[in-house]
């Protein structure tokens, strides 16, 4: 199989980071932090998760850079001493090791167009879900020449802990988040052909996807099922294993650009499960333009049976403002 060692390392790194996130969610997300809308638990987990994944990638593939969401700037400040100690403790590293590992994720592809192979990491995708004690994901993708070739998506709270993997051309698999190795069960998208019988998933957060527009789009498609609202790239996991036939991510404000780490892993998992992923205008998702999906707006993922119809209705229902 292609990318065997990459997959092995990526799976074990995402499993280790997921464990760290589960511990932080169990120990630091409390009734009091929920009440105060205190974001500090996710801050610890974000940094510790990036340290764990980047530490593993750096050791195994020192020459392949990582485009991670987080950087250590805030963590290096004097006032951050307490946070830094917590991050190091949860990552199982010294403070210096944790800072160095986090900064291994600081690559910007736009700064060096000669580099065409890099990882992209969202150490916690769905921070709002994490803070609510609900769904979040640890998402790691490998990009080559602007295309995602491998993805590992850890969903610690989905069905008791799920890990989805995909290698381009090799299908998508479902593994346990706690297990070992890379063997898993092949997954596939829903086989619903009639779009009116489909259900769709979308963000819990109305600020991340236009939920008013999705109501109209669903009604125009004849869909009567209630939207399945779930945080993070767990939405891609839902489409990949047939729990939803459509994922709509509809732009909410001009100027927002989707980030590569918010889509790389999820997108390849859906595609390898037999689905289709484009932006809201039906354009292919272009990962070759740096840290953002500069040429794309929003996302539509489907089981591939009625993708063009969904794109048509979405394009008619929303106005994409730059
Ligand atoms: N205005 C926005 N439109 C779309 N996505 C957004 C917006 N603001 C933040 N996000 C991103 O949405 C992702 C999670 O959304 P959801 O769980 O609803 O799918 C996060 O990665 C978050 O990025 P960030 O991590 O920078 O906050
Ligand atoms: Mg994210
Ligand atoms: Mg994140
Ligand atoms: Mg974030």
TrEMBL record:
Keyword DNA-binding: no
Protein residues bound to Mg(2+): 69, 122, 124-125, 262
CDD domains: PAP_phosphatase (cd01517)
Catalytic activity reported: adenosine 2',5'-bisphosphate + H2O = AMP + phosphate; adenosine 3',5'-bisphosphate + H2O = AMP + phosphate; 3'-phosphoadenylyl sulfate + H2O = adenosine 5'-phosphosulfate + phosphate
Biological processes annotated in GO: phosphatidylinositol phosphate biosynthetic process; sulfate assimilation
EC number from the UniProt entry: 3.1.3.7
GO molecular function: 3'(2'),5'-bisphosphate nucleotidase activity; metal ion binding
Domain of life: Bacteria
InterPro entries: DPNP (IPR006239), Inositol_monoP_metal-BS (IPR020583), Inositol_monoP_superfamily (IPR051090), Inositol_monophosphatase-like (IPR000760), Inositol_monophosphatase_CS (IPR020550)
Names of the cofactor(s): Mg(2+)
Annotated keywords: Hydrolase, Magnesium, Metal-binding
Keyword Magnesium in record: yes
Enzyme class: hydrolase
Annotated family: Belongs to the inositol monophosphatase superfamily.
PANTHER family given in the database record: 3'(2'),5'-BISPHOSPHATE NUCLEOTIDASE, PHOSPHATASE
Protein name: 3'(2'),5'-bisphosphate nucleotidase
Source organism per UniProt: Algisphaera agarilytica
């Amino acid at each position: 199989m292609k990318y065997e060692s990459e997959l092995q390392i990526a799976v074990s790194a995402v499993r280790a980071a997921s464990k760290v996130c589960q511990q932080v969610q169990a120990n630091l997300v409390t009734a009091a932090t929920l009440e105060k809308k205190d974001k500090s638990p996710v801050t610890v987990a974000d940094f510790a998760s990036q340290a764990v994944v980047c530490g593993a990638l750096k050791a195994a593939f020192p020459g392949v850079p990582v485009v991670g969401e987080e950087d250590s700037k805030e963590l290096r400040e004097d006032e951050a001493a307490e946070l830094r100690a917590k991050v190091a403790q949860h990552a199982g590293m010294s403070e210096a090791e944790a800072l160095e590992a986090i900064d291994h994720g600081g690559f910007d592809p736009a700064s060096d167009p000669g580099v065409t192979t890099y990882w992209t990491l969202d150490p916690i995708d769905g921070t709002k879900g994490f803070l609510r004690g609900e769904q979040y994901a640890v998402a790691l993708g490998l990009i080559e020449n602007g295309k995602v070739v491998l993805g590992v998506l850890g969903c610690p709270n989905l069905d008791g802990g799920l890990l989805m993997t995909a290698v381009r051309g090799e299908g998508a698999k479902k593994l346990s988040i706690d297990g070992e190795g890379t063997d898993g069960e092949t997954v596939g998208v829903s086989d619903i052909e009639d779009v009116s019988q489909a259900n769709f998933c979308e963000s819990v957060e109305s600020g991340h996807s236009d939920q008013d527009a999705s109501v109209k789009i669903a009604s125009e498609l004849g869909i009567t099922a209630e939207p399945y609202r779930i945080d993070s790239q767990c939405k891609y996991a839902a489409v990949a294993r047939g729990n939803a036939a459509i994922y709509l991510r509809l732009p909410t404000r001009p100027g927002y650009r989707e980030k590569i780490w918010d889509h790389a892993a999820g997108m390849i998992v859906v595609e390898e499960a037999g689905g289709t992923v484009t932006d809201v205008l039906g354009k292919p998702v272009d990962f070759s333009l740096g840290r953002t999906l500069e040429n794309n707006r929003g996302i539509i993922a489907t089981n591939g049976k009625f993708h063009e119809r969904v794109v048509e209705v979405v394009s008619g229902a929303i106005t994409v403002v730059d």
